[in-house]
Amino acid sequence: MRLNVLLLSTLCLFAFSSLEAQKKKKKKGEEEKPKTEEKTTIASKVKGHDKLEGLFTFYRDTTSGSIMMEVSKEQLDKEYIYFSQIADGVLEAYSFRGAYRGSDIFKIRKFYNELEFVKVNTSFYYDPENPLSRSQEANMSNSLLASEKIEVEENGKYLIKADNLFLKETWSQIKPPSFPGQSPTAFKLGSLSSEKTKVRAIRNYPQNIDFKVEYVYSTSSVLNGGSNAIADARNVSISVFHSLVAMPENDYKPRFDDPRVGYFTTQVDDQTSKEAVAYRDMINRWHLVKKDPEAAVSEPIEPITWWIENTTPLEWRESIKQGVLEWNKAFEKAGFKNAMVVKVQPDTAEWDAGDIRYNVLRWTSSPNPPFGGYGPSFKNPRTGQIIGADIMLEFVHHTNRVRYSKLYSLSANSDEELPAWNPGDEANYCMYSGLMLENNLFGQMAVAAETDELDVLQNEAMLELIMHEVGHTLGLNHNMKSSQLYSPEQLYNKEFIQGKALTGSVMDYATINLTKDRSKQSHYYSTVVGPYDVWAIQFGYTPDISDVDMDKLLARSTEPELMFGNDADDMRSSSRGIDPRINTGDLSNDQITYSIDRIELVDNLMKDLREKYNDPGESYQELRQAYYILSRQRAQAGEVMSRFIGGIYVDRAMQGQPGATKPYTPVSESEQKRAMNGISKYMFAPNAFNTSNDIYNYLALQRRGYNFYRGPEDPKIHESVLSAQKDVLSHLLHENTLQRLVDSELYGNSYQLGEFMTDLNSAIFDADISGNVNTFRQNLQIEYTKMLTEILLKDKSSSYSNHAKSMVLYNLNAIDRKATNSSGNTLSRAHKSHLRALIKNALDEYKG
Ligand SMILES: [Zn+2]
């Protein structure tokens, strides 16, 4: 205690004496240069600055480039929109050109001699009539982003230094966080360098201001240099556009979401409602107003105008334009003529695509494209009104190139790598064109002999892709159920399908339509918007629709061509969806038949592969790529069939809606059995992967430098086959699938768990376990047995139901009995012993 007092007084003494010294110094200075009493004004503070007038007035120092901001009294406590997008970035840091990062509401508040920038929480609604609304700030947080000292206050105007607002990550987080469990060798950005980070451009307009800031992250040494897209990982630049936007002043009325139609939404909870479902979610849509409100169909006062960026390859411009304008057909049913307008950005244009006032169809050819098409929009978080949108298209997805690294990944599940971190909440990345590239390459193989058809295929693909991405910018999310529109027969019927959309919506990820009989081929993709698309636009855009008319419109959701289910429900992942009709890479209302047709088409093409890719003077890389693409198609078809086992048809119709079925109806036993038989024959049977052996000697990559470092270059045929089989098995043995089979017995499922598991065991063992087992089947049998033992023993065991574990024990014992024979060649006998050892160990270890 004593020591502390002593220390404190010493410190005070020190502080005092240095203050004294300062005073003395100052006095001395004053003597030399007598101070002229000059009042600081805004004008004096911004001397030598450029004045940038617009929504807010900014001043930029012509010598140092530093920025000052002027805020007027009337601008205080008003709501503004903040929006950001990546101007340019690197995928390693989850940022890439054109990535939208969501929009927020902010206010500027005055606190004594400071201005505060506050991000406002817009997730909750309080009825202003309800006294509870007085409590509306309770237990929720607005965020104080920044406080800046007022340098000058003059005639209701405040001048502040604005560098910190933009040179730091004030508005949004740009550098990704380090994730728990992240590999120590993972790519990392250095620290934000204050000396290298610069505001590169300021564009000021009456309604918005855009800042382009180049953030530089520096470090003196790196372990992981990232991809070749990064010149030197010690200094990595990420350029971000920050836009401050005035609140739109119009009579826009929010439209509330409905679960039967798929729009992106702005989610709001109604905190003063007593309803069980207290959602006040607004759909995101453009503000379209009829020029002639009385007319049934009128042009809008302001159409949605798209600009084809001047970077667009010339040969694609017409298809792109057609793809955008196709949506006008849907808008006409909602009462608007020429709602969409397309223009081409002149080569001499002064503006660039980062300018939020322009909706631009953009092109890039990136080293590591994160997607092939991406249609983000940004909105007013208060109302859901879409204010701007862009579409990014990747050139590589319209070439014949498969990424080198992808030639190693053979599983149908190895989708494009998604940027997994985005501070905006509406990162609706669209992976459609990645799938479309595979579809196109596959389609090209099928039509290779018919040269004119290749152009048709590519144009249809572009048209559908554009319609899909434009659909996103109109507010529509995916509809992965819409591929149920037609039967395989109808899709294969040239006369019937000509001129029609192949799916209810272009917002699906359907597979390419290919007929086994090439003479019957019609459309490969949809070339017009589908019936669901028209209906969804009617829901979102019909102006001033009455409640009665809205109910009538929504009551149509039970019509088969208006089926809807989005990514949240789709069955790509076994842990998510339950309705096998909601899926990607599928087509037709009989996905099992269509999948079997696809596999047979693949197997036919596989036979002629060597001949087809016989190009003297060329390497064999294209042949290897072709093998890989065909294998993926096969795997995809197997996956689609597997989803019927334990599947439940979901109907989101409201109670009493005409045509509605029960919300949950289990897939019939006969359909589940048909899927099981299809999987058994085409994915598991000893001859399921009977590719002619003479192709394997040729599956060679073209050498490039030392780029085989990922491993030996030989085509790993067994691994390829097994990965396709494992995709199927991992769904069939998923804890949700097994539990659902038992659960759904209570409401109509008659394909019981015991029967299914017995069928599965038979499909995997019965054909050959008593004799020779070929090497593909050995792999399948071992892998399957291991998966069973893991249900008993591994970490994931706790997530399995008791019923599932009982059947696993039952099946392991059955396999043990089946494998108790010593027939077959040496490897087959060794394999059977291996199986039995696996089972014995698992049973010994199992404690229940
Ligand atoms: Zn999409």
TrEMBL record:
Keywords: Hydrolase, Metalloprotease, Protease, Signal. The keyword Signal applies. InterPro entries: DUF5117 (IPR033413), EcxA_zinc-bd (IPR032534), MetalloPept_cat_dom_sf (IPR024079), Zn_MMP-like_bac (IPR034032). Residues 564-584 are annotated as: Disordered. Residues 123-291 form the DUF5117 domain. It holds the Pfam family DUF5117. CDD domains: ZnMc_MMP_like_2. This is Zinc-dependent metalloprotease. Residues 454-768 form the EcxA zinc-binding domain. It comes from the Bacteria. One of its GO terms (molecular function) is metallopeptidase activity. Residues 1-21 form the signal peptide. The keyword Hydrolase applies.
